[in-house]
Design brief:
The chain has 13 helices and 16 strands. It is α+β, with helices and mostly antiparallel strands and 463 residues long. A hairpin with a 3-residue loop joins β1 and β2. The structure holds 4-amino-1,4-dioxobutan-2-aminium adenosine-5'-monophosphate (4AD) and magnesium ion. 4-amino-1,4-dioxobutan-2-aminium adenosine-5'-monophosphate binds next to β11, β15, β16 and α13.
Amino acid sequence: THCAISDLLAGKYAVGETVTLKGWVRTVRSNPNFAFLNVNDGSCFDPIQAVIDNTLANYEEITKLTVACSVEVTGELVESQGKGQKFEIQAQTVNIVGLVEDPDTYPMAAKRHTVEHMREYAHLRPRTNMFGAVARVRNCLSQAIHRFFHESGYVWVATPIITASDTEGAGEMFRVSTLDMNNLPRLENGEVDYNEDFFGKEAFLTVSGQLNGETYCSALSKIYTFGPTFRAENSNTSRHLAEFWMVEPEIAFADLADVAQVAEDMLKYVFKAVLEERMDDLQFFDLRVQKGVVERLQKLANAEFVRMDYTDAIDILQKSGKKFEFPVEWGVDLSSEHERYLAEEHVGAPIILQNYPKDIKAFYMRMNEDGKTVAAMDVLAPGIGEIIGGSQREERIDVLDTRMKEMGLDPVDYGWYRDLRRYGSVPHGGFGLGFERLVAYVTGMGNVRDVIPFPRTPKSATF
Ligand code: 4AD
Ligand code: MG
């Protein structure tokens, strides 16, 4: 067996013990007497140094190793003489497992690359410091999210990826079909005959698991989903993906204030977790990606998030004296420049914006007393804008039906959704956290394409 570098550095092995580690070469330095091999296995940020005596039979070959060669090193764990690391390995054997064919053309050679360059090598970029750190932080955040909900009594529900409903009503769904696009079956009126399709009707990739989530919350009280969602949004921005992961809790017997509180508690919980578990990676982001990410997380893990009404936000934006690309007036959907002004310049921390105009929000949001706004909430974070969108849901069937008709939806298509309001309806609500936006926020990475292993964006679905 061999040991993970994370365990070695955490002191789980005693000095003097013989250990084996397996990993990939980061750097090689040598003089006639010794070679120093830095080896990383991805279990943590830091590599470990192996010291190699020129008496080893394959010493010459070892000194010729290059970045990314794979090796197996066995030796004694010793306290490090040099500064920086506590331990190193005094090698007894070094097995060379895999060489790099042509070190001069190896695309991830040890120099700094731009993130754009690395995107072209999605299969090799996890080997870099940056993408290794992103992968570990992303993992830490997902585990923490599951832990948060598990500890708070939520049931994780699997909602379907293939669906017929456009939850957000934005018409941004990818079609799922087995029809031959070059020879579509037609009805007499010329329309495509979806009776002939696999599901006997039109089907799409889901944009959100919410509506399905509501059904389980109406029986199990507190549930959440965590899975991929899809949007055929043709927006080439640093915060949009065509395939992204969403976390969607849904809570029975809850109003908007309850939902906002869960969002705040969840975010603080995961900020704390990443500070506790991944300080090695966070320090890298702080140093090389965005100054201040660690301090920001430390502050936020204990801060109280500001809550603000949409109507007040419009007022603040109008009085800001800022020249926005899109002018603001009551009723408009906020664009990212507005969101960022509020979070970055006005408050300087995440804010929870509430009670949006009904006309810019989805059909399922609960109508407020004023008849103009709905019980919606978004969490806006500095640097990225909206990371969470949620609401209290309309639990009154008559109001729901009116809303659906207003928005051109046929209540008949939503029979199952209406049933939840007909049989023991309860006030309830939830939210959706855009997981990549959270990872981008926590790491300071500027683009969501660099916090998901294989980004899917317009005109790009390689790998
Ligand atoms: O605000 P959205 O559209 O809300 C919903 O889908 C609700 N059904 C959620 C719910 O209440 N259960 O999306 C939720 C979040 C956004 O705040 C954003 O963080 C993220 O999903 N998001 C995207 N992330 C990456 N790429 C995209 N194209 C995204 N679209 C939304
Ligand atoms: Mg939204």
